[in-house]
Design goal:
By secondary structure, the chain is of the alpha+beta class. About 20% of the residues lie in helices and about 35% in strands. The protein contains 5 helices and 12 strands. It has helices at about 5-15, 45-50, 75, 115-130, 180-190, and strands at about 30, 35-40, 40, 65-70, 85-95, 100-110, 130-140, 140, 145, 150-155, 155-165, 170-180. A hairpin with a 5-residue loop joins strand 1 and strand 2 (about 35-40). The longest helix has 15 residues, at about 115-130. The termini are far apart.
Length: about 200
């Protein structure tokens, strides 16, 4: 598959998810012959997280729903610097046009700073990407909890990422939007409800 405009959303989810140091929940990992592990992503891999992804956006189900276990240093990025060795996640992708879409994702990571760690992962990734420009970070309130929002352009294409802690312990909610108006971003945030 060629690199579409949705590529940054899908790739970022794949790297961490679809993507906690001392207290990440146990998730089975694929062990390679070299003794390491390989990142995995497929539908049904982490079913309990897949059930936490909102079921509807724009009046329909996602075009794709899957989950992931990420354990490679490359996939973990800045999370590895905080001692995270494995993270599990699930995400639903809504393709809203030929080069626009939204991913709603849920990550499992323990600790009171769990959302800050995921936000840092995305901030670091955006800051290091060669075609990213005009990165702006704000801290809105989502479902009564402090969030981190990143707005930037990737190859002159608008992107937004919003990260906030779930009401459920050890979970983090994430919205990734490419080329959509803020109205859609707000609908995506509302799709999580109070979770």
């Amino acid at each position: 598959m060629g690199r579409s405009r949705l590529g940054p959303i899908v790739i970022v989810i794949a790297l961490v998810a679809l993507a906690g140091a001392a207290a990440i929940a146990y998730v089975p990992r694929l062990v390679t012959s070299g003794g390491g592990c390989a990142d995995q992503r497929q539908a049904g891999l982490v079913p309990d997280l897949e059930t936490r992804v909102p079921k509807q956006l724009e009046g329909r189900s996602p075009d794709r729903l899957d989950s992931a276990v990420t354990c490679s240093p490359q996939g973990l990025g800045s999370l590895a610097e905080h001692g995270v060795t494995t993270i599990s996640s699930a995400g639903g992708l809504w393709e809203l046009g030929p080069s626009t879409g939204v991913t709603l994702a849920v990550f499992r990571l323990a600790g009171p700073d769990r959302a800050d760690r995921i936000a840092e992962f995305y901030t670091t990734g955006a800051a290091q990407a060669p075609k990213v420009a005009n990165l702006v970070t704000t801290h809105p309130v989502v479902a009564g909890r402090s969030a981190t929002r990143l707005d930037y352009s990737d190859a002159n294409f608008p992107q937004a990422i919003v990260v906030w802690p779930s009401a459920e312990p050890d979970l983090v909610n994430v919205v990734l939007a490419a080329g959509v108006p803020d109205r859609i971003v707000q609908e995506a945030l509302a799709a999580f409800g109070s979770q």
